[in-house]
């Protein structure tokens, strides 16, 4: 996607469309950024909108369309099925959009969103917030040539996202991270899974083989009795293991030994400085809009993650039919 021109304004005018559980945090974070003027929020639930507006001190609007000429950027935090219809008018006017993940409910809608941003020169960032996890950033800095990756994202059941499957809700985070780490086309995908407590897939396993020979194995579950979030990466020069919960990164690296027949394995555990990923994500979105830079997760990256997630889901459904 072309890099947009910088926006030379004293304070960036931002609105939040959709202030449910996650959208409320968007509004709270924007309200604390000195370089941002939170000009308004929109939600179909008038009571919810009024409550959040009282927290952040901004007006409430019933129709997002009235904000188009009043904002430089928007966060769109509505149900995925409404992403295209809500984001379209803003993108058509060149307004920068941060669109929560996944980019869309279907590949066609995702392609349309990316095309709109490209055509009108609008910045489009997709809310894959785990890219701003301090542990993930530390891991990515140490990746050279990943050959095998294991990703585990498992937790107990929650009513929060029972309208979508675990692939779209949870696994897509790790798919996005892995696609960014490996950086080569996918050769083959295989997947299995099952619905356990809902009518959607609640536990899933996917194996992704890349064109360069790298392999990734992912497990996502929302019906586990213990919470696990872990990444393991094997590469020719060593091994890395990231524990998202403890924010520790275990590193094992090979070092040559003078006169020795084999290199020495040196191990260390790094304690990662905790950060709030959503705060970093929104601050970076504001920076990109103001400077005309490139989002960490642009529309194309969001579309790739969606395409792979949809293929994983379809393989599981086909095997279950």
UniProtKB/TrEMBL annotation:
SUPFAM superfamilies the record matches: Glyceraldehyde-3-phosphate dehydrogenase-like, C-terminal domain (SSF55347), NAD(P)-binding Rossmann-fold domains (SSF51735)
Name of the featured protein: Gfo/Idh/MocA family oxidoreductase
Residue ranges occupied by any Gfo/Idh/MocA-like oxidoreductase N-terminal domain in the UniProt entry: 12-128
A single MF term (Gene Ontology): nucleotide binding
Highest taxon in the source lineage: Bacteria
Domain GFO/IDH/MocA-like oxidoreductase, chain residue ranges per copy: 153-234
Record-linked Pfam families: GFO_IDH_MocA, GFO_IDH_MocA_C3
PANTHER family found in the cross-reference section: BILIVERDIN REDUCTASE A (PTHR43377)
């Amino acid at each position: 996607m072309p890099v947009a021109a910088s926006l030379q304004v004293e304070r960036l005018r931002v609105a939040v469309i959709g202030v449910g559980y996650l959208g409320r945090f968007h509004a709270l974070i924007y309200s604390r950024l000195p370089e941002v003027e939170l000009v308004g929020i929109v939600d179909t639930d008038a009571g919810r909108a009024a409550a959040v507006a009282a927290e952040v001190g901004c007006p409430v609007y019933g129709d997002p369309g009235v904000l188009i000429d009043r904002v430089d950027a928007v966060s769109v935090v509505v149900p995925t099925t409404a992403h295209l219809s809500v984001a379209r008018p803003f993108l058509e006017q060149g307004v920068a959009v941060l669109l929560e993940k996944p980019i869309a409910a279907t590949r066609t809608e995702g392609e349309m969103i990316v095309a709109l941003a490209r055509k009108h020169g609008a910045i489009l960032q997709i809310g894959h917030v785990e890219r701003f996890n301090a542990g993930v950033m530390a891991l990515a800095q140490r990746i050279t040539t990943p050959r095998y990756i294991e990703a585990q994202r498992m937790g107990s059941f929650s009513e929060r996202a029972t309208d979508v499957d675990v692939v779209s809700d949870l696994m897509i985070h790790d798919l996005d991270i892995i696609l960014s780490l490996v950086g080569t086309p996918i050769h083959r995908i295989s997947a299995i899974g099952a619905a356990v407590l809902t009518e959607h897939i609640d536990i899933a396993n996917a194996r992704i083989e890349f064109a360069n020979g790298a392999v990734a194995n992912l497990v996502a579950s929302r019906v586990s009795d213990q919470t696990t979030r872990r990444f393991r990466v094997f590469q020719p020069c060593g091994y890395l293991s990231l524990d998202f919960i403890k924010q520790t990164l275990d590193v094992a690296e090979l070092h040559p030994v003078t006169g020795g027949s084999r290199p020495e394995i040196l191990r260390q555990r790094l304690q990662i400085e905790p950060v709030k990923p959503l705060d970093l994500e929104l601050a970076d979105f504001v920076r990109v809009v103001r400077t005309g830079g490139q989002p960490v997760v642009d529309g194309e990256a969001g579309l790739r993650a969606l395409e792979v997630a949809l293929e994983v889901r379809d393989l599981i459904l086909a095997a279950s039919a």
